[in-house]
What does this fold into?
Amino acid sequence: MEKKNIDWANLGFGYMETDKRFVSNFKDGKWDDGVLTEDSKVVISECAGVLQYAQTIFEGLKAYTTEDGKIVCFRPDLNASRLADSARRLEMPVFSEDRFVEAVVDTVKANIGYVPPYGSGATLYIRPYMFGSNPVIGVKPADEYQFRIFCTPVGPYFKGGAKPITIKVSDFDRAAPHGTGHIKAGLNYAMSLHAIVTAHQEGFDENMYLDAATRTKVEETGGANFLFVTKDGKVVTPKSNSILPSITRRSLMVVAKDILGLEVEEREVYFDEVKDFAECGLCGTAAVISPVGKIYDHGKEICFPSGMEEMGPVTKKLYDTLTGIQMGRIEGPEGWIKVIQ
Ligand code: PLP
Ligand code: COI
It folds into this structure.
């Protein structure tokens, strides 16, 4: 398939309709085989479980063109198993993890013309999702579900790409202890909309959420986990049962330890100690690694020594190595790269 005529270098993080998407339905206790379709519209009951009680979960991963011209994606098996975890928590049927990976491959292959070329700065964002589709009026899980995958070419999540961002400590909570913060449920993002609109109105790029119970520990942002670097070069990431187990963060901890030979630590991070770190970054599929230059906390500012112009040196090494693996310049651990074509 010919490449589409798209201004790859100037893409933001937005939706563009592509040629095909994958659709599979769950009915009478089983999933059908699924098809690729040109129809981008979803038609469901006005009383569908997703519309009334937000029974919806999703995933996000990317396809990349490598230096030698292959098209690959990054650890799709982990997205498959996280979607299964999300489904179990919201009483939804699990979609086979093997079928998930096959369906991702089929969807990307059907939209090959939209995979941004190597070096363009853009990637193909892949969005698998599942929702309750039949009428539900008493509060209970749906009986019928739809699983879909679409993809869309994207640029950087934060305007300005790799420029450090400024975030604020939010007065709102994102996730409760024993709640749903550890799964990728649409409801967690609905929860965060007022907080992100407020942050943007005040001139900040994102929110730092603290733990809801004590408001003393760092959790995550609306769409990414945190990484910190200590003044002696150790990579630290918050441990919490109410944050999303980011595949990017888990991968970066392996990159830091096994490839870069850095010390790593996953532990509770108190907000009080954040001012002592040398570098701070947000990590996720959409965010990749976005450096944080400044954190605003109720009239006080924490300014990281790495500044507002460039990523800190350790963050940069992590960024270069991770994106090097994803774009085929560096060999990653076995099983991380799934070749699509
Ligand atoms: N945390 C939240 C709340 C997210 O939405 C995401 C995005 O998926 C992440 C973290 C990063 O996860 P991953 O690296 O698996 O994309
Ligand atoms: C992702 O990184 O895939 C996400 O789902 C985060 C979202 C804020 C776009």
